[in-house]
């Protein structure tokens, strides 16, 4: 007898199925508090499962990578190069967002009287707390007074700092450090194995997250701001395909190859609106793409905090959009000032929960938009957040490949062989 061939959906398709089921359930159970609570619980459980393993993976992988590198000057060069790359790309993203919003003029089409007001008090509270800790405070907080406290609090920059020092320390003691190196290599491999198990729960988590969102907002409430959502997604798609595409070609990479390889992670980022859930698999896949472990283990976690391409596009689009909604005609000098304020504020808010929306709260008052005006887009923030997270994840992959190649820590044959498996 011939055995029946069993077709198994890939993770990406499973997640998409979860997305569709979540939307349907959200429509069926609109404003049902019990369903919303259950769906949020399901989604939060998945996010917590991923969050549980992110820092152990970052710590173990970075320690192994830096120990094998063993060169503090090289580490400093890689760090500086990474931060400059992220800054340049996020500045381009800010400018593109402002240009598109000026050209589209969608804000003028809004009827402010027809839009329901959304409670943004939680964002205002976060903004007030974050305003006391600017960029300087964030840089100071990189050095932890207690590593285990930073690990427990989920503070990724202090963990990166300590991991780099610990890895360099292992390299400095030579043979004696080999047992530690083997231990952390084993820890990293165990964490990646656990990641694979957790990802089987992803479709359920996605269904819960999107179902709760649709049930809370309702599809009808999204219609007035539908054009803004479309404008945001089109701009983000152009940034990925054109800007990241051009940057990739400058280093002999193809953006479409990168998107094929990490398509499952992009779908996961889109449906959960979280970069964190993709971090373990991105570190693993970029290493399979030929990037040295030390580069991958450093650039991707750093990008989780400083790679702001998607957020930059959204913030600049939204700021101009809101000004137009209130019929505030900004001069060129005012827009340049807005660009400068966005660049500074976004760095100061890095790592703050709901950072993109908090940046807008701290910024729009400089162009005359009342803070209460952000209630206009608060309802769709989650939906746009899904798109900007995809841009951040795609940007992280491109950055890792480019930094790896610029440091000659890149295996072209390994890259080509791995890409070929996705064609």
TrEMBL record:
It holds the Pfam family SDF. The chain crosses the membrane at residues 12-29, 49-70, 82-104, 150-173, 194-219, 225-247, 326-345, 357-378. InterPro entries: Na-dicarboxylate_symporter, Na-dicarboxylate_symporter_CS, Na:dicarbo_symporter_sf. Keywords: Cell membrane, Membrane, Symport, Transmembrane, Transmembrane helix, Transport. It is a multi-pass membrane protein. It is found in: Cell membrane. One of its GO terms (molecular function) is symporter activity. One of its GO terms (biological process) is dicarboxylic acid transport. GO terms for cellular component: plasma membrane. This is DAACS family dicarboxylate amino acid sodium (Na+) or proton (H+) symporter. It comes from Ligilactobacillus apodemi DSM 16634 = JCM 16172.
């Amino acid at each position: 007898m011939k055995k029946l061939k069993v077709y198994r959906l890939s993770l990406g398709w499973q997640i998409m199925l979860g997305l569709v089921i979540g939307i349907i359930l959200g429509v069926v159970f609109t404003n049902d508090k019990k369903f919303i609570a259950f769906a949020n619980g399901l989604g939060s459980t998945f996010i917590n499962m991923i969050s549980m393993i992110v820092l152990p993976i970052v710590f173990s992988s970075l320690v192994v990578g830096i120990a094998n590198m063993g060169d503090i000057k090289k580490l400093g060069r890689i760090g500086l190069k990474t931060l400059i790359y992220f800054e340049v790309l996020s500045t381009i993203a800010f400018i593109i967002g402002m240009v598109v919003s000026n050209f589209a003029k969608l804000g003028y089409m809004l009827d402010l009287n027809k839009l329901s007001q959304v409670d943004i008090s939680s964002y205002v509270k976060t903004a007030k707390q974050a305003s006391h800790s600017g960029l300087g405070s964030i840089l100071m907080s990189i050095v932890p007074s207690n590593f285990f406290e930073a690990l427990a609090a989920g503070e990724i920059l202090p963990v990166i700092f300590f991991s780099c020092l610990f890895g360099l320390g292992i390299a400095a003691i030579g043979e004696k450090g080999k047992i530690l190196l083997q231990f952390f290599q084993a820890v990293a491999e165990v964490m990646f194995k656990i990641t694979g198990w957790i990802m089987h729960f992803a479709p359920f988590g996605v269904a819960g997250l999107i179902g709760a969102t649709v049930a809370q907002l309702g599809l009808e409430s999204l219609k007035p701001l539908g054009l803004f959502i479309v404008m945001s997604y089109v701009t983000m798609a152009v940034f990925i395909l054109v800007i990241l595409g051009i940057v990739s070609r400058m280093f002999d990479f193809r953006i479409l190859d990168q998107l094929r390889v990490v398509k499952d992670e992009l779908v996961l980022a889109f449906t959960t609106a979280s970069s964190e859930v993709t971090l373990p698999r991105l570190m693993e896949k970029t290493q399979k793409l030929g990037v040295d472990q030390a580069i991958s283990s450093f650039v991707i976690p750093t990008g989780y905090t400083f790679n702001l391409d998607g957020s930059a596009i959204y913030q600049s689009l939204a700021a101009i959009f809101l000004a137009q909604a209130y019929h505030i005609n900004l001069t060129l000098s005012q827009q340049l000032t807005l660009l400068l304020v966005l660049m500074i504020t976004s760095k100061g808010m890095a790592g703050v929960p709901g950072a993109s929306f908090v940046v807008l709260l701290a910024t729009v008052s400089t162009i005359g938009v009342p803070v209460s005006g952000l209630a206009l887009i608060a309802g769709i923030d989650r939906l746009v957040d899904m798109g900007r997270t995809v841009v951040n994840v795609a940007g992280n992959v491109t950055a890792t490949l480019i930094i790896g190649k610029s440091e000659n820590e890149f295996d072209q044959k390994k890259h080509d062989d791995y890409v070929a498996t996705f064609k």
